[in-house]
Amino acid sequence: MGAWKQFLASDLIVAPFEVNKGFSFPYSQWQTGSNGQPVGIDRFVGVNTPWNVSLGANQTTGDFQVEYRSLVYNSIKQLYYSNFLISSSGDPANLRILVPGAGPSGSGDVFISSGVSGSGPLYDNFLQSTLTPQRYWDNFSILVLSVPSKVYGEYIVPTTFQLKCGVPGVEGTITDDGEGNLLSGSTNVGNIIYPQGLAIITFSGSLFDEDVAFWSQETNMTCSFSSSMTIYETQYKCTIEASEYNATLNPSAQASGSIFEWTGSYFYDPGNGQLLDGLTGSYFSPYVTTVGLYDEAQNLIAVGKLSQPLPTSPTTDTTILVNLDF
Q1: CB 277 within 8 A of CB 254
Q2: What confidence tens digit (pLDDT) does each residue in 141-199 have?
């Protein structure tokens, strides 16, 4: 048997907290992990060439998902590098911008930017911090490693990404510096977009050069990183006041009562509700062993078991905290 008490809004506290989990996938597990679950890590080549339908499969890229090389190149350029085609720290705007009332001593409107022909447009390139970014664009080809969101969660944790690649005797490692840059040794070879799971290699002259054949055929790769996910913990404060639950509903504690059968089921009749003589002393106090959480229709949806029976107090409030993580 049980007793119910309604929660108040002040009894519920919802607190988010972030959890991280590290992964390391050799190339053989990029499509399907060691547990048999799909992973879906893929790699692509982006090439600065016009799309030509007559070239057919020669224009496609990707180990598990087929994409066109020219579309990969132009999509990455548009989304992440369109403001960095001239300068690695950001291009000047290609049009002058009118700022109202920004002239010296409030003299009126003023135009900013040089308006240099051919400079970068004002697009949003998914800048990840207020630090001055370093993004180098290659006019010929790029390499892209894509990690699906079901694996990295909300974002790849900065400084945890690592890509190992090469053949025995000729191996290299790319890491991220925590600011969105990919490094091979001390050389900036590209960028990582943490909240979208993309590692983009744009720098020529390293082991991870825009060597299309090497990138497309070599399978001795290992991708490692930590994922991030926000979990919401709901804390329910179950307060038993000193004047509450000071009697027991346990049938075995009743002085009178009987068990009767009705249509094949057995029920307990508590009789007059008086307790046994040994349970009526001044030191008697019920013990709490289980807390159940019910919905508005009084359906049991969660059960919390205490590690040991907890006596209620007839003089002070007793509070039991139930934490649920989602």
Answers
A1: no
A2: 889 999 999 999 999 999 999 998 766 556 778 999 999 999 988 888 899 999 999 99
Query: What is the pairing mode between strands 198-201 and 222-240?
Result: unpaired
Q: What is the largest distance, in Å, between two alpha-carbon atoms of the chain? A: 98
314: helix, coil or strand?
coil
Give me the residue label for tokens 């249509």.
Answer: 263
- CA dist 26 and 221 (Å) reads 6
Report the alpha-carbon angle 250-290-234, nearest 5. 150
Residue type, 164: K
Tokens of 319: 């509070």
- Cβ neighbors of 14 (< 8 A, separation 6 or more) are 232, 233, 234, 235
The SS3 call for residue 212 is helix
Whether the full predicted model's pTM is greater than 0.85, yes or no, is no
**Terminal Cα-to-Cα distance of the chain (whole angstroms):** 29
> Residue 79, class by beta-carbon neighbours within 10 Å (0-12 exposed, 13-18 middle, 19+ buried)?
middle
